[in-house]
Structures are given as C-alpha cells and as structure tokens.
Fold:
Amino acid sequence: MSTPLDSPDRGGTSVLDRELEELIEEQTHDPGDHERFSHYVQKDKIVESAITGKPVRALCGKKWTPGRDPEKFPVCPTCKEIYESLTK
Structure:
C-alpha cells in the first residue's frame, strides 16, 4: 500500500499547492482598461460576491471581486454593447 509520502507528486500537499495556485490565479485582476470602467454583472452574482467574497464575471469577460462604487466610473463599452444586443 502506498501513501502520499511515497509519491509526493501524486496527491498530498502538491495537489493542494496546485489548487491554491489555480485559485489565486483565478482571483487576480485582469490587466488593462477594464479597471477604468463599471461593468455589467447579474445582480444576484454581486450579492453572492458580497457575502462570499468570490469574484464575479462581467459580460465582457472581466473577472474581479467588486469593491468600489460603480457610479464613479463610465460604463464599459463592451459590456454595454453586449447588454444592448441581448435586450433586442
């Protein structure tokens, strides 16, 4: 019978380390102009994010954890274009 210590590359802490790296990578902010805009996100996802701290994904694809007042920034043109195409 083998244990995780017998095969450190197969399970054990290496799996946890890999999962943690993937989680951190998912939660990083996307670079670029996305930071200068307010984005369209489903309301229930924003509420969920406020409760759990999980990031949200905007219509344009930007993924981040909301934390600023969206009224202080112009609307993302890509989100606006996608939203308007959905409402027609």
